Amino acid sequence: QVQVAESGGGLVPPGGSLRLSCAVSAFPLDYYAIGWYRQAPGKKREDVSCIGAKDEEIWYAESVKGRFTISRDNAKNTVYLQMNGLKPEDTAVYYCATGDTLCSWSFEFWGQGTQVTVSS
User: Fold this and answer.
1) CB–CB of 19/86 below 8 Å?
2) What are the tens digits of pLDDT across the range 52-89?
3) What's the 3-state SS for 25-72?
4) Separation between Cα atoms, residue 59 and residue 57, nearest integer Å
5) Strands 78-83 and 68-73, sheet pairing
6) What is the rounded CA–CA span in Å between residue 41 and residue 92?
7) CA–CA distance from 43 to each of 25, 56, 84 (Å)?
8) Which residues, in sequence order, are bridge partners of residue 95?
9) Residue 89: what are its φ and ψ, rounded to 5°?
């Protein structure tokens, strides 16, 4: 059974940083893409970042480009989303998902989400 688990969310002031983690069980993550999404209350889900299998593809939404960095630790079967320069508009529940080798944004396996709140 595939399990996807996000962690690392929290409350930070504007300009602060957080590192989200996405741990996946059941298959070696380096052969799969991981996508990060977010959804704020009352808003549509937004694609945030994605790293493809073997790191052959990396994508960022324009709204986070230059502030967020996605990376992978194959030994830990974990993908990270380093978030710097956080803004109040980054407040959302962040989800990771996997199950495809490409950043297709039609992933089969999802985590439960981790809350990120940016506020003074």
Assistant:
1) no
2) 998 899 999 999 999 999 999 999 999 999 999 999 99
3) CCCCHHHCCEEEEEECCCCCCEEEEEECHHHCCEEECCCCCCCEEEEE
4) 7
5) antiparallel
6) 7
7) 30, 31, 22
8) 37
9) -70, -5
How far apart CA 78 and CA 71 sit, in angstroms, is 9
- Report how far apart, in Å, the C-alpha atoms of 117 and of each of 6, 50, 72, 77, 91 are: 15, 21, 24, 26, 5
Count of other CB atoms within 10 angstroms of residue 59 = 16
- The residue that leads in pLDDT, 104 or 37, is 37
Is pLDDT at 33 greater than 90 in this prediction? yes
Identity at 105, one-letter amino acid code:
W
Strand partners, 3: none
Contact 93, 7 (CB under 8 A): no
CA proximity to 114, closest of 80, 70, 84, 76: 80
Question: Using CA atoms, how far apart are residues 14 and 1, in angstroms rounded to an integer?
Answer: 38
**What is the spatial distance between Cα 37 and Cα 88, in angstroms, rounded to a whole number?**
17
